[in-house]
Amino acid sequence: MKIAVVTDSTAYLTTEQYNDNQIYRLPLSVIVNGEALKEEIDVTNETYFDLMRQSEKLPTSSQPTLGDIEELFTELSTDYDAIISIHLSSKISGTYQSVASLGQRMEDIAVYPYDSGLSCTAQGYFVLEAARLVQQGATVQEIFEHFDRMQQSLKAYFVVDDLKNLVRGGRLSNGAASIGTLLKIKPILHFDEKQIVVFEKIRTHKKALKRIEDLLGEDIKKGYPIVSTIIHANAEEKALIWKKSLESLYPEVTFNLSYFGPVIGTHLGEGALGMTWVEDFTKLS
């Protein structure tokens, strides 16, 4: 069986990762001043935050259209027997549901949707692993079983400068937002049951990052190899400084750098920092 690997744009993979691993992308869009822009096609991470600052109101986001999904899947059906389609959390976007619904109606190709339960690089880990395993000849069932193992070690935490965007975009409750605004603290956020929730309440940004470092350290002690990624929302300099510090603190870990692109960056806001990590299966092969 020849399997295609598809994801949506919020995995924020590099052009090289898409091309080198034969991964296909479904772009989500941001709506800025009434204009829908497909992220990483019509608008990039480098240009988006200027647009966001100039926007009269907070931009919104939208999932891929059914037409875009069907067009890609139909195109893939000429060369592939099946599609593994990996997407951001179904609790923050309808993308997974749309893919699952359309997939049931596809006649010339089998579609296997996967709800990663989160987004960004953490979602991208599943995508890259799927591509690696497809190249090794793994079956769909074997790949999904591998995803279950990945979920056991996968962690993702982030800190935002302002919780208001998350609330206005419907991705965080007003009650959770009041924690940060009323008490003047920097809560650490994470995904729980596929939703963005407060993990811990921390007094300062510096202490919040230190707490995330300690959480990584706890997993390192478990003895398995780890790959980790620092993620930023138009705050590359801060992310690089943190990455350099982490590389010194934990030299046994492979650290990478990524970003919160337009769709996710809209909700987290400029300046957000995060870190995700997972067992590094490439070192076990």
TrEMBL record:
Molecular function in Gene Ontology: lipid binding
InterPro entries from the UniProt entry: DegV, DegV_C, DegV_domain_contain
Entry annotated with the keyword Kinase: no
PROSITE patterns registered for this protein in UniProt: DEGV
Keyword Nucleotide-binding: no
Keywords: Lipid-binding
Known function: May bind long-chain fatty acids, such as palmitate, and may play a role in lipid transport or fatty acid metabolism.
Name used for this protein in its record: EDD domain protein, DegV family
Organism expressing this protein natively: Desemzia incerta
